[in-house]
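Annex B, item 7. Sequence and C-alpha cells for protein A, then protein B.
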Amino acid sequence: MSATIPLTKHEAVPGPGEHEAAGATEHSGTHAGNRPKRSSRKGGRGGETLAALAFLAPNLVGFLCFTVLPIVASLVLSFYEWPIIGTPVFKGLGNFVKLFTRDVVFWRIVGHTLHFVVGYLILNLLISIGIAVWLTGRVPAKGFFRFVFFLPVLSPMVANAVVWRLLFAYPDGLIVAVFRMLTGSPGPNWLGSPDWSMSALIIMSVWAGFGYNMIIFVAGIEGIPKPLYEAARLDGAGPWVRFRHITLPLLTPSIFFATVMTLISSLQVFAQPYILTGGGPGSSTTTIVYYLYQNGFQNYEMGYASAIAWSLFILIMGVTAVQFWFQKKWVHYE
C-alpha cells in the first residue's frame, strides 16, 4: 500500500525554467572554480621558464664571455694599431690595406696554405672513400678495422704531431731507417728541406684526419638501398660500374658534407706546422693561422693579427658559399 506524501507550500516542484537557471548557475560556478587553476598553470609555466634559464645561464655566460665578446673585440682591434703595451691608435682600414697591398709575405703564405688545403683535401677524400668502400664489403672484423682507422681522430693533434716529428727525424727517425733499408739511402730530409716539408705536413694530417670522413662515408654507403646493387648484378654490372653509377652518385651528399668540413678545417691548420716544423724551413710551411700567431703573440701586433683573422674568416665564408652554390650541379639527394 503506497502512501502519497503531500507537498507543502514551501516544497514546490521546480519548473523547466528553474532547471535551466540552476544548470546555468552550476555551469558558471564550475567555470569560476576553474579560473584559479588556469592562473596557477601560468604561474607554473613561468617557474619552468625561470628554471630553464637558470640551467642555461652558466653555458650562456661562458658563450658570451669566451666566444661572442672575443669575436667583437677582434673586429674592433682590426681597425687599431695596438702593440699590447701602449695606447691603441685608430688606423681605420690601414691594417687591411697593408695586408693586401704591401705585405708580400702574406700572399706567399696564402699560397702555402692553399698548397696544404688542396693536397690534404684530395688525399683525405680519396683514402677515406676507398677504405669506406672496402669496409662495407665482405671484410672480417669490420668493427676492429673501423676502430683502428678512427683512433687517430681521437688522439690530440699535438700528440700526433710530436710522434710524427720523431718518425720524420733526420737521420735517426723510423721513416729514414725504412728508406735506408729499402733503397740504401736515407731518403729526403722531410722536415729540413723546403721541397719536402709541406709533403710531410700533408702526410701526417691525412693520417690523423681521414678516419672522420671514413665513418661518414661508411654510414652513407650502408644507407644505399641494397636492391639497387642486386638489380645491377642481375644486369651484369661489375664492381666498378656499380661504384660509378650507384655508390658514387648516392654518396654525393656525404661527399659534399665531408668536403665542406675538411676544407674549413684545413684552412685553419696550425698545430701541424707549429709542432713539426715551426713554420720552416724559412716560411715554406707557414700557414695563415700560424702567420696570425706570429704577428699577434710573437711580434705583439694585435691589430694586424686581428685583420689577418677576419681576412681568413671572409675567405672561409666565401669558399663555403661557393661550395653551396655549386652543390646544386653535382649533389644528388634522391
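Protein B:
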Amino acid sequence: MASLDLDTPWLASSIESFDGSLDIHIEEVSSSASLDSLDKSKSIIHCSQTIPKPPPLPAKICQRTKNQRCLTKSCFVPKETKDLWDRLFREGYAADVHIITENGSVIPAHYSVLCVASAVLENFLQQSKAKNGIRYIKIPGLPYDAIYVFIRFLYSSCYDEGEMKKFVLHLLVLSHSYSVPSLKKVCVDLLEQRWLTTENVIDVLQLAKNCDAPRLSLICVRMIVKDFKTISLTEGWKVMKRANPSLEQELLESVVEADSRKEERLKKIEEKKVYLQLYEAMEALLHICKEGCRTIGPCDKVLKGSQVSCPFPACKGIETLVRHFSICKTRVPGGCMQCKRMWQLLELHSRMCCEPDLCKVPLCRHFKEKMQQQSKKDEAKWKLLVSKVMATKNAFGPFMSRRSSFS
C-alpha cells in the first residue's frame, strides 16, 4: 500500500477526538425565443420561394471524368511486354549508347530509353558528342554488376532478388544520383522491411542521409538506439566513428535522449501506480467504515467472517492498519510510522469526501475544519496529491469492476 510523505503538525492534538469518533467494532480474530424562431423560419421559407432552381449538372463532363478513371484503373503491363524490354536491353539491338564502367567494361543501351527514364542521364547524353553514331558516358566508382542491374531496371523495372540484395546500397546511390524515384522506392522499401541488420545499419544510415531518405534514416536511428550495445561493436560503427564523428555525436545524443524518455516514462508509470494504490486505499477505508468487511466494521453491521472474499484489493492492508491504530499506545505522527500512515489516509479521505456531515469515516469533519489552520505550502501539497489521485480515478475508473463512492 502506498504511503504519503506529508507531515501534519496538528495531528497529535486530534488523538482524543479520534477515540470518540472511531465507532468501529473489531471482531476478535487471530491477526419567447420560440416565437421569434418561428417568425424567422417563416421569413426564410418566403425568401426561398423566390430563389430560382439551379441548372442541371453537366452530365457529359462527369461521364468523361468517369471514363478517365476507368482507363487509369485498367492500365496493366503484361509480362510479355516486360520480357520484350528486358530482351531489348540484354541483346543491345541497335544500341546507340555505350556506358563505360570502372573496370573498362561496356554496357550497350539506347539513347531514347535512357533519356525517358532519367533526366540526369538525358542531360549527360545531350552534352556528349556522338562518335560513329555512338554516345559514350562513364559511371565511375561502382562495380559493373551494380550498374548492369541499374540499367536493366530502367528498361523493364525488373530485377533479380539475389542481385538486388547484393547491390541494394549501390542501387540506392544510383537511383538518387540519376533521379530514378521508382528504383529508389524499391531499394528503400526492401531495406526497411527485410534487409536492415545490425551489421549494415550504420552504412545504410549514412547513405539514407546522403540520398534524402528520411523515413529510412529514422528507422535506422531507432534500430541503433534500441540495440546500441551490439551495433557500437560492429565494424561499421568503428569506421563511422573515424570518418564522421559528428554523426557519432548525434547518435550518442539520440541514445541518451531515448534513455531519458524511457526513465521518465517508467517514473510516470510508477507514480500512477502509487496514486492508484491510494485511490484503492480510500475505497477500502470507506468500505470498512460504511459497510464493514469480514471481521471489521461498524458496530451496527453484521460481519461476514474471515472466510468471505472481499472485492477491494486494499482492504486487507487497511484492515491491518486500523487494527494497529486502535491498540497502538504511541499513536502520534512522529512516533509510529503505521499510525502516521493512518493519519494521512484519514486526512486524504477528508479532502476527497464531499459529505463530511454524513460520512462514517472517523474524523472526516474534524479534518475539514482543521484545513483552515494549515500553511499555504502544505495546502498546495495536499491539493496536488488530491488532484493526482482523482485524475488516476478518472483514468482507471471505466476499467475497474467496482465504483467509488467519492464524487
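Comment on protein B: The first strand starts at residue 24 and ends at 26.
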